[in-house]
Give the backbone structure.
Amino acid sequence: MNEQTERYPNPSEIRHRIGAGGQLTINNVSGEVELRADDGDEVIVIAQTQSLRSDSLPITVRKTDGSLTIDVEKRGGSFAQFGTWFGLADGMEFQVRVPRAARVAINTVSAEIRSHFLQGEQSYKTVSGDVELNPD
């Protein structure tokens, strides 16, 4: 298993070949995830945050043969709620191009999810946010 973990500047472009039927998983806390089908075999993710607290993104990225997983790290601690009040929230935005037939799992707490014309197995879960499929 060829697993890679590194830090990413804000914003970042993350690329990984997963193959036409590979797996993409994004676990986000808040913000937005937008996915668009692509005819290639590579996932291309533009990730960014409006947070003023760091130059790097609060994410962990795992690249393995046939899969890409992005986990958003919850930052803060007991006073993290105050960041939302003062515009310091770690809301993450993901703009994603993914192979059309790829398997996709998007899990969020408070984020909008939009998916455009994917055909593979799909799972979208959010506690507080809208999910739109093929909104174009």
